[in-house]
């Protein structure tokens, strides 16, 4: 069950990052806003 919850929040994060990128935000900017590494965002985007 936990894995499903994790995947769900990952999907929400991904949608949020994508929306921000559509609005012209750079990955670097998104990473600093959410206090996550650029690598983690890139990995999430590549997995999708």
Give a description of the structure.
- The chain is an all-alpha fold and 48 residues long.
- It has one domain (1-47).
- It contains three helices and no strands.
- The radius of gyration is 11 Å and the shape is globular.
- The model has no long low-confidence stretch (mean pLDDT 90).
- This is Transposase.
- It comes from Holdemanella biformis DSM 3989.
Question: What distance separates the N and C termini?
Answer: 21 Å
Shape assignment: globular
The count of domains is: 1
The structure class reads mainly alpha
Note the run of SSEs as H and E.
HHH
Query: Uncertain regions: pLDDT < 50 for 5+ in a row?
Result: none
Mean pLDDT over all positions: 90
Rounded to an integer in angstroms, the radius of gyration calculated over CA atoms is 11 Å
| Separate helix tally | 3
Percent of residues in helices comes to over 70%
Protein name: Transposase
